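[Meeting: bench + compute handoff]

Bench side (C.D.) handed over the final construct sequence. Compute side (W.E.) agreed to return the predicted structure before the next meeting so the bench team could plan truncations. Sequence as handed over:
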Amino acid sequence: MDKLTLAQLKGLAKNPNTPTDMLLALLNSGEHDLQFNVLRNPHVPDQVWNAAVTHPDQHVRNMVAKNRHAPPEHRARLATDPDQQVRVALTEQRRTPPETRRALCADEDPLVRATAIKGWPNPPEDVTDRLLTDPAPSVRLAVSMRPELTEEQRAAIDFHVGPKDFVRPPDWLWDRLDDLETMRRCATSAHLGLRRTAAYSPHLPADLVEFLTEHHPSPPPALPPEVMTTLLSQAGLH
């Protein structure tokens, strides 16, 4: 397909007056750009959403999971999607309804359960309690970083974060970087992963910055200059 034809079809996909049968044809075109633009159309009818949710191409279903404008009732159907990546994408959307999040927290896949509890702003206590003793270490680690837990509750969870382990910052962090009470709890926690999350905040007062500096493991040593030069050259940056 040439660029001109593709551009014209993208315009058709985004046009709110494009008939349903044409939107369905574009959705089944196999062109991800066209499929993406169909699902960004502000007037996607239920028939098209239904086709997208049940589409054989995982990429299309993933687009629905990530689309914050998709109707909640259609996105909720993806909680039982056979593809792990689709279900994970669903956990990362803030507008995912609580009942869908609850189902994802009970998913058979540990990665889905972990991302589901990480991304849930205010999970019910019964869900959190159940995952405290989850058989998967990644899920227990995700629960251990919930901001509403006390240090006593956190200490009772079987998890491990080593000095060299990378821990992805939890989704709730970005909305609370200026919440100094939460950041203080994180910075002074015995949980190494939480202390690292506090370091992301540009609002930390001097006493917390000093505390983190004194109580955090030493950073790795700097690479020799010749090694850094070689790496930059290989990347075309030097």
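W.E. noted at the follow-up: The radius of gyration is 23 Å. C.D. will use this when planning the next construct.
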